[in-house]
């Protein structure tokens, strides 16, 4: 199996993230901070607060996974080089005369390159999280999925929490845990890499990393160039119909039978024997929903 | 001391919580989630958020005690069997056609049995927490009490915190740390088991577990059947009079002497010499209370 | 180098904090709790909540540094003697008849002595935090600074967070991370002691402890007696001009050139070549600030 493809995937999986990919990740994160309303004015008035927010955006996933594994949330500070790199990017982005960095970043090819490279770091983070969690809990596959997910997409949770503490953000019961697209694709990746790690997927790790990275980079670039958003909607619908569908069938047949209530005998066969019971349930449900 | 009673208590203290008692605990916790207004509608719209809330209710005490001992808050996920059991109960409770589980649970004997069995798990959790804390801090009796309490009754704190983050709950300064009855009885149990563990109570552990369990199960069932609430009010009053009473005596005698201010000489003997000083204090207090 | 000064500094650096200095620290902290509006009434109504707040004020720095190093936040409870000392002070302060403690504390010399002694404990905490962090992360100088800072001044963060959870405090985006004077002087101390620890400062630790303690005690007492507030404003201005000044220069020259816009040629030489570019930047900035 020493094919050129395999060689390429293996070489790719040994790529070091450090200077270039990390740089792209920090740049995209800091530009996200800067694009928030009022961020530039805040940086002038209170640079330390702005720097702190930028660091949370750059290292949020790592901080969350440390908290979940009961490691020091300051662990990222021990890697001085990366913190200094991120700080320099924050400094240049916010305080560069004539806003040169923002002007450069506003070119589409630059954005595409940086975002694509940022997605590559996501794969590395998921794999790192899954492996790290495995060293704590042998075969604790749920923990592995959770940590891979937290490291890959946890920055959003950390930064939302920061905004909550700062009073910038009022959470709504509905929005809580409603996942964004990056969050979903990271969860999917975390599940796949966990199953690969527990030997339930007959594919080598470097091949999987290569394929997953191509998938997320391609999706990201497609989304950015076509201004559309890729969703998992069909897949989610199928899954939700599999899991909750038989119940929804009852609900919809109830509704139908309700709509047809004058001609009572036209309900579907499946719904008829349960009509009385389901009415009780419906009343209960509506009571509880009030 | 090999009496039948002792044998019974010993056998009882070796009962495994796993399938049946844990099942009852998860059932009662999930039904508590379901009885919240809007919970059923939320489960249809956002199942992951609902599942997350249910897990916090089922494993909240363990999560809090892990946080307080600097262990991974995801430790409970490593025990896949229990998580799957709790998830199944959540799934059946929320999505069972015709709401069969809720209908079954609405029968009083079922509720009594489930609640009684849930209280049994409380004893096991307190003892587990106290023993676990002792393995970290030898003779750190305050830590032992706190961890026993957190594991036995900490779910309420975790779930309140979740509601705070979700924006469902506005805390009031007054309500903070105002303890509910389960919280108080768990604190009492935690203190008792800690003193037993540090050899300050001349009673064997299995006897104490048996007696404490009988006490909390009996109280719970009495409260549920008679719809009254057992309170520690007399005990608390005594304690608070012991601790703060002599000061309250002063306050009340001050009030009396104030009421009788026209006939200035009729104050009690104890209060008279301190009248001037206490007036100063009162003014300060009222100033500070404004 | 066995001068009397050196002997004095060495003896000073071996002073034990335990009974007297810790007492002063707890007293000042509890009096700060008591001076909050409504604190006395709350203590009568809900003593446990009041006690909890007092403990957070007394041990907040230690709790925060434990959280940041992934140690148990209950570690302070293991030191029963100190907790009992702090609890006694809380009890006497809040429930002493005729408010004797508050009356005694209202005398300026008592306040000066207590506050001075409290500042001494700050030095010990910073040094302890720096040394402790070094035992986790060899040469992780950022972690050392952060932990020294957290232990010395972290109580404010913990107590603000408690007020946030209790609903007493609404944070404003602007105030977040705006540091108070104690916070700044602790950060400075933490940086100095970290550099001393990593051998970048050619001064012995006991001498540095002595000098730093004299500095913070003297500043504190000056501030209390003269009712003025010492600020680092000139130092901060210099630093901020060094870091962000060249950019501000551009901004101000832009403003000037804007003011002089009718006579367009009078701008300073430095600002002229960049006028067009800087206008673009200005527009962007104002857009983003909207």
Automatic annotation (TrEMBL), chains A, B, C:
The chain crosses the membrane at residues 51-70, 76-96. It is found in: Endoplasmic reticulum membrane. Keywords: Endoplasmic reticulum, Ion channel, Ion transport, Membrane, Potassium, Potassium channel, Potassium transport, Transmembrane, Transmembrane helix, Transport. It catalyses: K(+)(in) = K(+)(out). GO terms for biological process: bone development; bone mineralization; cellular response to caffeine; endoplasmic reticulum organization; establishment of localization in cell; extracellular matrix constituent secretion; lung alveolus development; lung epithelial cell differentiation. Residues 253-290 are annotated as: Disordered. The keyword Ribosomal protein does not apply. Belongs to the TMEM38 family. Homotrimer; conformation seems to be controled by binding to diacylglycerol (DAG). This is Transmembrane protein 38B. It comes from Aotus nancymaae.
């Amino acid at each position: 199996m020493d094919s050129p493809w395999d060689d390429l995937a293996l070489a790719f999986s040994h790529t070091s993230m450090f200077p270039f990919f990390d740089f792209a990740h920090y740049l995209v994160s800091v530009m996200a901070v800067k694009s928030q309303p009022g961020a530039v004015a805040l940086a002038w008035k209170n640079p330390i607060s702005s720097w702190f927010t930028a660091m949370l955006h750059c290292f949020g996933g790592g901080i969350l996974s440390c908290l979940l594994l009961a490691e020091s949330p300051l662990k990222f500070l021990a890697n001085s080089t990366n913190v200094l790199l991120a700080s320099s990017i924050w400094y240049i982005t916010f305080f560069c005369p004539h806003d040169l960095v923002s002007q450069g970043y506003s070119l589409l090819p630059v954005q595409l390159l940086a975002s694509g490279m940022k997605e590559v770091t996501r794969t590395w983070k998921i794999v790192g999280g899954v492996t790290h969690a495995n060293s704590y809990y042998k075969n604790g596959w749920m923990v592995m999925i959770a940590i891979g997910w937290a490291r890959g997409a946890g920055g959003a949770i950390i930064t939302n929490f920061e905004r909550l503490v700062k009073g910038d953000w009022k959470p709504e019961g509905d929005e809580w845990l409603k996942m964004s697209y990056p969050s979903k694709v990271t969860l999917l990746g975390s599940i796949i890499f966990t199953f690969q790690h527990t030997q339930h997927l007959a594919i080598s790790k470097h091949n999987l990393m290569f394929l997953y990275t191509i998938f997320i980079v391609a999706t990201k670039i497609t989304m950015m160039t076509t201004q559309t958003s890729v969703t998992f909607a069909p897949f989610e619908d199928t899954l939700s119909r599999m899991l909750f569908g038989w119940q929804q069938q009852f609900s919809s047949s109830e509704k139908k039978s309700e709509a047809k209530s004058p001609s009572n005998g036209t309900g579907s066969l499946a719904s008829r024997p349960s009509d009385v019971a389901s009415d009780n349930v419906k009343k209960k449900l509506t009571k509880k929903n009030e």
